[in-house]
Specification:
Strand order of the largest sheet: 3-2-1-4-5-7-6
Helix content: 25-40%
Oligomer: single chain
Strand content: 15-25%
Radius of gyration: 17 Å
Largest sheet: 7 strands, mixed
Structural class: alpha/beta
CATH architecture: 3-Layer(aba) Sandwich
Bound molecules: S-adenosylmethionine
Shape: globular
CATH superfamily: Vaccinia Virus protein VP39
Number of strands: 7
């Protein structure tokens, strides 16, 4: 249960020295010159983060994962990459947490420029829709954490869930869809399937995917 992992009481209590020790050698710094900008929600085994780490070497990023063993695996994976590639992978980390409860404890208003929800659990039954990581209510929280112009990336192989995520985003006043040419030009879009473990599995089985990529906007009155 939640009591087994510590939760920072506010974003300035997130200890960057634990996550990015080479970049933040001391823990007594509460105001950081640089903040986490990308969050991979339900990061699983961390494939996307590993790819993003070298694609955006100057951006701090974190995976949020509920399962303890999976989180430990990702930690070990990052540590091994840091040892094998001195100076690289210093900008990527992972934390075990329940993202549906604790996003505001980690990120302040407008802090994030990208959020990822890749192959989230579908929760098929109607009564379980409230457990979905994209919902009208949670989109309010994500809109708060994202900066204006920040992007939310979603993808799934479950058509019904894809429609649900798109409908939630479409119906929210603070999100607008990226145009086709913007999707084409964004190198991150290609990684949604190719870099994630789930995406690779779906591709191996020849499955279809459904993506929705939206920008955080200021609602027009
Ligand atoms: N995004 C990864 C990928 O595409 O390979 C993993 C997808 S996996 C199907 C969904 C992941 O979300 C699981 O690892 C699960 O433990 C995690 N998860 C589910 N609910 C969560 C929550 N409330 N907070 C954080 N992680 C969660």
């Amino acid at each position: 249960s939640d009591s087994h992992f510590p939760v920072p009481i506010s974003p300035c209590h997130v200890d960057y020295s634990l996550h990015y020790p080479q970049l933040f050698p001391s823990s007594d710094q509460t105001v950081h010159s640089k903040k986490i900008q990308f969050a991979d929600i339900g990061c699983g085994f961390g494939g996307l983060l590993i790819s993003l780490s070298t694609l955006f070497p100057d951006t701090l990023m974190i995976g949020m994962e509920l399962r303890d063993k999976v989180t430990e695996y990702v930690k070990e994976r990052i540590l091994a990459l840091r040892v094998e590639n001195p100076g690289q992978y210093q900008n990527v980390s992972v934390v075990r947490t329940n993202s549906m409860k604790y996003i505001p404890n980690y990120f302040e208003k407008g802090q994030l420029s990208k959020m990822f929800f890749l192959f989230p659990d579908p929760h098929f039954k109607e009564k379980n829709h409230r457990r979905r990581v994209i919902s009208p209510h949670l989109l309010d929280e994500y809109a708060y954490a994202l900066c204006t112009g920040g992007i939310i990336y979603t993808i799934t192989d479950v058509e019904e869930l894809g429609e649900w995520m798109k409908a939630c985003l479409e119906g929210h006043p603070m999100f607008e869809a990226l145009r086709d040419e913007e999707l084409e030009a964004d190198p991150v879009v290609k990684l949604l399937s190719s870099a994630t473990e789930e995406g690779q599995k779906v591709a191996r089985n020849g499955g279809q995917t459904f993506q929705a990529v939206y920008r955080r906007v200021v609602p027009s009155l």
